[in-house]
Design goal:
The protein is an all-alpha fold. Helices cover 73% and strands 0% of the residues. The chain starts with a helix and ends in a 10-residue tail after the last helix. Its main location: membrane.
Length: 167
């Protein structure tokens, strides 16, 4: 009877950090982000909340499937697949405060490159446990690829935003 609570909890968890990151940096979006030089293929600001809601929901539900198949967090088999997931989630949540909050394009770039590696590692480790869970991460990996390219372009095209360059 408690399984629905676990399902909901795991599904909602990624949204918590995502919402917090947005909430803490929301004022910087019109004030700072809009002034950055961005490529023509940069998605509209309105796309991001919709995309992240769907991506976090899929990622969260997938983490529940893996957790459930492994018999919970207490299993020694759960350490690597859920550890990778937790680590990539922390880096995912760290990106908005680094990018929007601190305006630190260097750290945001390092963060997202490490995030990419951990997210790919998560998907690969999940594939052996639950293929549906791994497949549910594919849209996230695709969006991360776009977000990484966008971060690289913004980092390259806005050199005045890098530390030590504004003197």
């Amino acid at each position: 009877g408690r399984m629905w609570a676990y399902t909901v909890g795991f599904t909602v968890l990624p949204h918590v950090g995502g919402f917090l990151g947005w909430f803490l940096s929301r004022k910087e979006i019109p004030a700072w982000y809009e002034k950055l030089k961005k490529p023509s293929w940069c998605p509209s600001r309105k796309v991001f909340p919709v995309a992240w809601t769907m991506l976090y929901t899929g990622m969260g539900y997938a983490s529940y499937l893996v957790w459930n198949d492994l018999g919970g967090c207490g299993s020694s088999k759960a350490f690597v697949p859920l550890g990778l997931y937790g680590a990539q989630l922390v880096l995912n949540w760290a990106w908005p405060p680094l990018f929007f909050g601190a305006h630190n394009l260097n750290m945001a770039l390092v963060d997202i490159l490490c995030l990419d590696a951990l997210a790919i590692g998560t998907a690969c480790s999940w594939y052996r446990i639950n293929r549906l869970a791994a497949l549910l991460l594919l849209p996230y990996l695709g969006w991360l690829a776009m977000a990484t390219c966008l971060t690289i372009r913004i980092w390259k095209d806005n050199p005045e935003q890098k530390p030590g360059k504004s003197d």
